[in-house]
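Two quick folds needed for the group meeting slides. Do the first one here.
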Amino acid sequence: MFSYFFKNVVPFRYEVEGDVISEEMLLDFIPQLKHVPIKASQKEAFGFSSIVGFENDEQYIHSIDGWILLSLTFQKKNIKKSLLNRRFNDLKIITNENNFKMGKAKLTQEEEEELRAKVYLELLTEVQPDEDYLNVIVDTYSKNIYLSNDKAKYQKVFTNLMRKGIESFSMSNFNPHGVGLHLTQWLYKPTENLPSEISLEDSTYLTSEQSARARLTKQDLHSDEIQVLINHGKKCSVHFPINETVLN
């Protein structure tokens, strides 16, 4: 929930046998599913990585009261189809010309497929991978999970990795109201709605139904002015107005 840990928030509900996820459960398998840097011949590689923002490269889990922070790293090599076709065609022409000079037949379809696979593997060893991250917060109080990326593939990979250690794990019931509803409730009369272990900073984002967004800085988020803005349809969005000292 730091600004550098969560730029966007995609909330889900989770279900596990035994009701809740604990840090002890995760410690049993998360380190064994850590990300290993992509190899020259690999197209993609992913796994759990050290928590973003912490200096310890082996810190795969960080817990704060009822919240558990996780991070995943994704590496992928993108091979342009045009480049693959061009290099394959050039090599096919050269190979067929050499075969003709030696009195051999042209490449068969099977041989062409093998040649294309060889070219693809060569390109994999040349291309530098793109790297991306998925940050996760597991809320053991509400049984919600918050992801920093809305890519369906990332969600599927995360779910599959979790099931390697917790077979009953599932994510469902996407929250149609979004996490902004919860953040808005925290801002609206925080003395009544804000969880006791959280304190507010002095800035936040408020968005209207017309998508106009205003950033409030150096403001007293406990003031009546914030309540008036919320009463007029403004909602908290994007950033968590949370004091980072609570999360250290």
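Then this one, please, same format:
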Amino acid sequence: MTDDPHLRRYDSTKGFAVGFLIPASAPLSGAVLAIVLDVDSPLWVTISVITVVFLLAVWVTAAYSRAATILYEDHILIRTAFRTRRVAWEDVQEIRNERSPAAYQHNVPKRVMVLYDRGGRMFLLPHLTEWAVDSLDTELGVLRDSWIRRRGEDWERTPQAIAKLNAVTAKSERAAEQLGFLAVCAGGCAVWPVLA
């Protein structure tokens, strides 16, 4: 990497796996072990379950530690547990913050950063969530600046990317409308007992 402030690396801190992931998996491991040890099962079943739980905790920690988003001069590297993708800056069609696909679940970030490529495919950018960085909007500005400066003079959006972005935007607007309608209905339902 160079001294360019726009070239950055987003990955897990070394202490995160030890300080968060392993303790977070302890209650799950304890619950599974309590069930296995409480049931009259052969010793080999107990040992197998303990081994699987331990290997799963190690795998989750390793997968989280491997994931990264790295900005280079000519491309952005997206590394996940199973894959590494290099997307050239000129192939990037959009970088933006979106509502997380799992936003309705507890204990997951509500906003994540995503990248759309030339084919309209969306990629979540590892370690670029509202939990992982101080300001997701600030980091979005950094990534968009890098992209705009490096994508080339003759860059254009592809029809596939335009169609995908329009579909995602329409889906987000429908979801917002539905949530607004549900909030109005819930508020109306709350008023009836008071009026009654």
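Slide caption for protein two: DSSP finds four helices and seven strands in the chain.
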